[in-house]
Amino acid sequence: MKRFLPIVLTTLLFCSCGQKVLVDEECTFANNKWMRFDQPAQFTFHNDNTEDFFNFIFTVAIDTSRYHQNGLPITIEMNSPNGENRTMFADIVLRNYQDNWLGEFDEQGILHVTQQIRQYYSFNAVGDYTIKISQRTNKYEIDGINGIHLKIEEAQIEYPE
């Protein structure tokens, strides 16, 4: 068994080294309230890779005693360095069909739900990008959203042999 441990650790090291991460940031909201129009979360990053594909992974931290909805609709606006603007929509699923919360609770009782909101995305220009994420519920302010986290990482595509 001791002989296999270095092989396993080396394999894990090589598998994890090649994945490029463009964004790995979080945004918290004052008083755990996310305003619809005047409080988008903003993420800025530089990209020099127009050949590979990337996945967008979104995590929301929720106080379930204050936010009771089954989902969280969001809008993602991306401004490219070449002036192109793209708008994408996603619905973050927070509960399953049995009405149970998805995700994991931390030691403070805050629910963290992670969902991939974009898969195999290819950037079309080299330079600085800005992404703004806003909630698009029917309420001006939603209570109980502690913060959000965005991670954009290189997609691992496995082709069949």
Quick overview:
The chain has 161 residues and is mostly beta strands.
Task: Give short descriptive properties of this protein.
161 residues; mainly beta; five-stranded antiparallel β-sheet; four-stranded antiparallel β-sheet; 9% helix
Report what the structure shows.
The protein is mainly beta and 161 residues long. The protein has one domain (20-154): Jelly Rolls, CATH 2.60.120. Helices cover 9% and strands 50% of the residues. The strands form 3 sheets. It has a 5-stranded antiparallel beta sheet, with no helix packed on it. A 4-stranded antiparallel beta sheet has the order 3-9-5-6, with no helix packed on it. A two-stranded antiparallel ribbon has the order 2-10. The radius of gyration is 18 Å and the shape is globular.
Oligomer: single chain
Low-confidence stretches: 1-16
Query: What count of structural domains?
Result: 1
- What would the CATH topology be? Jelly Rolls
Strand content: over 45%
Through-space gap between termini: 31 Å
Indicate the overall shape.
globular
Helix coverage percent: under 10%
| Category from helices, strands and their pairing | mainly beta
On the 0 to 100 scale, the average pLDDT is 86
Radius of gyration: 18 Å
Within the largest sheet, what's the order of strands? 1-11-4-8-7
What's the helix count? 1
**Main beta sheet strand tally, sense and closure:** 5 strands, antiparallel
What string gives the helices and strands in order?
A: HEEEEEEEEEEE
Give the tally of β-strands.
11
